[in-house]
Amino acid sequence: MANTMRRAAAAIAAGACAVAMPCASRAEPPRLSIGADTHATGVFLNQQGDVLTARHAVDHCKDVFVVKDGKVAQARVRAVSNAHDLAVLGTELIPYLSATFPAKAQSGGSSMGVFAEAYSVLQRMPHRASVLSNAMTVPGGDDLNLISGVKPGTSGSAVLHADGLVAGVVVERVARGPGAAGVVLSRASSAAMVSGPSQVRAVAAEPVKQFLRDSGISFTESDTPQLAPNQSPAARAATLAVGILCG
Amino acid sequence: MAKTSNPSFTRSSGSPFIRRAWERIARVAGALGLGLTAAASAPAAAQAPAQPVPQHWISYAQLASNQFQAWLSDPENETVQRLHAWMQDRMLQEGQAAPPAPLIVRVWVGEGGKVERLEFASLGQQQADEDLRALLTSQALSEPPPRDMRQPMVLQLELSFVAKT
């Protein structure tokens, strides 16, 4: 365990020391300041600490670490979906709450307000508890498309309905021109900084659930609202979110 | 009620964890005093139907319980270390082999997520009571409570020991 944490500390040192951590060697487990930027985002799936994120955010990492409330822990890749750009990380973190997916497939017939944001942004978002949505769904298509202003670091973020159910997982910013490639939203993978609202693609809950079932990863599904009307999905997103660091 | 997908080929630790999680929710909901499991075996006509506990109350109580539990078992926190050291000493003095009984706390949470009022039976030492109170009131919960949720929440917490490294 001590070796693992030393490796974690060493692996994140380059990215985190300058930002948040004293660079002297430390005996205790590494911590990251709440405001430090993380590479991508994940969402807790169950009480075992499994975390769902975007595959592209972790597939070239020598080591993967997860961050929650400043605590850093090493993660291992448990399952990968190349088809949907998803990955599940096994972690030692104990979530306060984990994601609840809709039991029934959601119809994408009309546009609605949803919330999706990067872990590092959520940690320092002012008035988080009063934010009800920051993106709109785009009707049509097999994927869950959003009009959103999210920035790099959002890959792997849960898209939350107003009722707190997880509608999908963010994977990329959709290209604007015909034939252009999409821009993934993990920090290290982003070829260009993006700004302003644009179309973002998320993997919808149904294929996410199928991937989890196929991979033997436990999760919760329900059609019962997890939030009251006017209770903030942004605050719930912060509870469910995990930062991802690539070592 | 939520359904937890638990494939038969999932790793062996899955089922007990999930079962424990839902047992905890049931305990929390029961502690809220709203009859989540009322009249399971009683004749239906004999009792009025119990008012179901709203799921968002249950979610919030689970969040608060888990976050308190995390604060109480943070091995790097000096107050946690002192509280747990006191508990260990007490167990040794009293010759107890079993871990201490779960702690019942009544909690009122403000709009910002901070615990504004906390009631619990004394642990038997003023410093221990102060440490427990400090641990549960010095930080804000990650979410404010639902506006319609009845308070106080009555939560059952466990004081698990900090592993010495």
Plain-language structure description:
The complex is a heterodimer of chains A (247) and B (165). In chain A, strands 7, 8, 9, 10, 11, 12 and 13 form a seven-stranded antiparallel sheet that branches. A six-stranded antiparallel barrel of chain A has the order 1-2-5-4-3-15. Chain A has a two-stranded parallel sheet with strand order 6-14. Chain A has two domains: 2-90, Thrombin, subunit H (Beta Barrel), CATH 2.40.10; 100-239, Thrombin, subunit H (Beta Barrel), CATH 2.40.10. The two termini of chain A are 17 Å apart. The longest helix of chain A is centred in the first third of the chain and has 15 residues, at 2-16. Chain A is α+β, with helices and mostly antiparallel strands and 247 residues long. Residues 1-28 and 189-193 of chain A have low confidence and may be disordered. Chain A has helices at residues 2-16, 119-123, 205-215, 233-240, and strands spanning 40-44, 51-54, 64-68, 71-81, 86-90, 100-101, 113-114, 135-138, 144-148, 158-160, 166-173, 183-184, 198-204, 219-221, 241-246. Chain B is of the alpha+beta class and 165 residues long. Helix content of chain B is 39%, strand content 13%. Chain B has a three-stranded antiparallel sheet with strand order 3-2-4. The N and C termini of chain B lie far apart (41 Å). Chains A and B meet through α3, β14 and α4 of A and β1, α1 and α2 of B.
